[in-house]
Amino acid sequence: MLELVVWCGVAAVLARAALWLLAAVREVLHQLWVTRDIPGPPSYPLVGSFLAVAGPQEELYEKLVALRADLGPTVKLWLGPVLVVIVSRPTDLELVFTDPRLQTKPWLMYASSMEPCLGAGLITMNGADYRRHRRIISPSFAQDVLHGFAPSFNANAHRLVEQLGELADSGEVFDAAPLSRMCTSYTVCETVLSADSSRLESDRRAVVQAVYRGVTLMFHRGIRPWYRWDTLFKLSKHYDDYQEMVRVGDSFVSKVLDLKMEAQAKETLGQAEEAGEPDAQGSGKQGKRKAFLDHLLSSEEGKTLTKDELSGELKHLVAAANSTTSDTLSFFLYCIAIRQDVQAKILEELDAVFEGDREREVEVADLPKLKYLERAFKETLRYFAPAPIYARQPDSDVKLPSGATLPKGCVVLVSPHFTHKDPDIWPDPDVFEPDRFLPHNSVGRHPHAFIPFSAGTRSCIGQRFVMMFLKTAAATVLRRFHVTTPEDGPRRVRDIKPIFSLTLHVKGGARIRVQRRT
Ligand code: HEM
Predict the structure, then answer these.
(1) What was the pLDDT predicted at 198?
(2) In 157-297, which ranges are E strands?
(3) Whose CA is nearest to atom 24 of ligand 1?
(4) How many Cα atoms are found within 13 Å in the side-chain-facing hemisphere of 209?
(5) Which residue ranges have their beta carbon within 6 Å of ligand 1?
(6) Is residue 229 over pLDDT 70?
(7) Which residues lie below 8 Å from residue 405, measured CB to CB, with a gap of 6+?
(8) Bridge partners (DSSP) listed for residue 393
């Protein structure tokens, strides 16, 4: 009798496995058929077109650009049994960003590579959980909340100015990227987590290091599907580093949450003023400044998030905010160091808005007046979109306006670089020209031709934050320093080589020199 039960069990498992395999084969056959007219590089049994993109990480960017140039705006790639369709026409993208059948983030590119490190959060979640979290978190990014961050943006821009001052005095050539990272990380710690307490200083320094390394490690693991299995990943030389990064992130966010809960408890007991550690970011009575976390915790809906959910969201925000923003600042400084004419126009505008005052703090009211500076940042984001790829997965077959069909279950990949460098949309795409974004030069350009922050329901929640911070940092730095490239540095923006990771970095560093303005 027992034998019969065991055999029935084995038969049931085998039947399920066979059904699963059958469904998977059917899906692949369907995908092959539906996408037969979409061009792609040569594909071979088992590996598919993996060879077209395999190789050192430094070459990935050039390989994708070459695919676009050779095969056109819609390209398919078979990575083993996984079908990837790269979409780049603005009219197609509009559908990708807005169609309800295309709002799922593929597990393979998101949850499987990010959640072991960050936990679940807005970037990786799907379905009803995602919608609930976005509804709870969005109000904490409202305009008035962002305006409260101006003192933090200014303070951290001044910290950057101090560091640049020392480098100006020494006259040395340096890489702007680590300084941009430090400035961004401190700002994000303060404004997202309200982690500017002196009790967190040493942890915060560790996090600044871990965040950058973390982006590289997550990418390293993410593009090697066999590392999804911990057993195999343990064999990787990066395993210990990865674990350390996870530990640093978890411990930091946990400490921040504990301190916050402690401060709230004291506040409730009316003891905030006597508490030895004043609430630096102002969730206490006397404070004015509130971080995202304070807003979240003070909202009724925010209180429904569990500690695990909160911790995941905070890690997602810190990860999403840091590298993207600091890479933009590094690319921007490098571009204007090369393009002295653009830098001169920025200074002219700064002198007009600040009436020649090179010391005054940047106020929220100044920011909308810095229109040329904003165009220069937009052009930096067009040229070097810091989030180089992102993806969706159709719940059912979706026909694009261009005629191609995205089959159910494939990975729809969006690379802003494909769209941002399309000469039919952007004349002379390799020329760095901020005035492309002048209203009269934008007439007739499709709104989805510029997509550094994605678009639609799953677009970046931090885009207004980014512009406020970057403009404040640039207005503070450029009124005080003149930025140049060294003699052996690139002469044209097109000579800057980016390197692909989860975000886009400057290959070899953004090597610049600064001189004090007189
Ligand atoms: C230049 C800086 C930034 C760029 C270029 C950028 C770009 C993007 C892009 C392309 C996405 C969509 C990703 C996808 O679909 O997988 C995204 C999502 C997101 N970004 Fe940003 N981002 C930047 C800064 C920030 C900042 C400062 C924050 C927070 C303070 C932030 C928070 C998020 C979050 C939470 C999401 C997920 C949104 C959702 O799916 O609902 N980002 N970002």
Answers:
(1) 64
(2) 174-175
(3) 321
(4) 11
(5) 122-123, 134, 192, 316-317, 320-321, 324-325, 328, 386-387, 390, 452-454, 458, 460-462, 465-466
(6) yes
(7) 34, 35, 397, 398, 399
(8) 104
Q: In 3-state terms, the chain is what percent helix, strand and coil (to 5)?
A: 60, 10, 30
Q: How far is the CA of 134 from the centre of ligand 1 (A)?
A: 12
- Ligand 1 atom closest to the CA of 188, numbered from 1: 30
Backbone angles phi, psi at 19, to 5 degrees: -65, -40
In the structure encoding, which two tokens stand for residue 82, read together?
A: 């996984």
Spatial CB neighbours of 396, under 8 Å, sequence gap ≥ 6? 101, 408
Please, which pLDDT band fits residue 136 given cuts at 50, 70 and 90?
A: very high
Counting atoms of ligand 1 from 1, which one is nearest the CA of 457?
Answer: 41
Taking the C-alpha atoms of residue 180 and residue 173, their distance in angstroms, rounded to an integer, is 15
**Residues 468-479: b if buried by 16+ CB within 10 A, e if exposed:** bbbbbbbbbbbb
pTM of the model: 0.91
Tokens read off for 78: 């078979």
Name beta bridge partners: 86. 75, 413
**Cα–Cα distance for residue pair 37/94, rounded to 1 Å:** 21
Which residues is 484 bridged to in the sheet? 513
Provide the ipTM.
Answer: 0.99
460 is in an annotated binding site: yes
- Name the phi and psi angles at 104, rounded to 5: -90, 135
Compute, in angstroms, the gap from residue 206 CA to the centroid of ligand 1: 23
User: Mind listing the pLDDT tens digit for each residue in 169-192?
Assistant: 999 999 999 999 989 988 988 888
Confidence of residue 272 (pLDDT cuts 50, 70, 90): very low
Q: Which residue has the higher pLDDT, 195 or 251?
A: 251
As a whole number of angstroms, the distance between CA 86 and CA 109 comes to 14
Atom 41 of ligand 1, residue of closest alpha carbon: 458
Residue-wise pLDDT tens digits, 383-402: 999 999 999 999 999 999 99
% of the chain residues with pLDDT over 70? 94
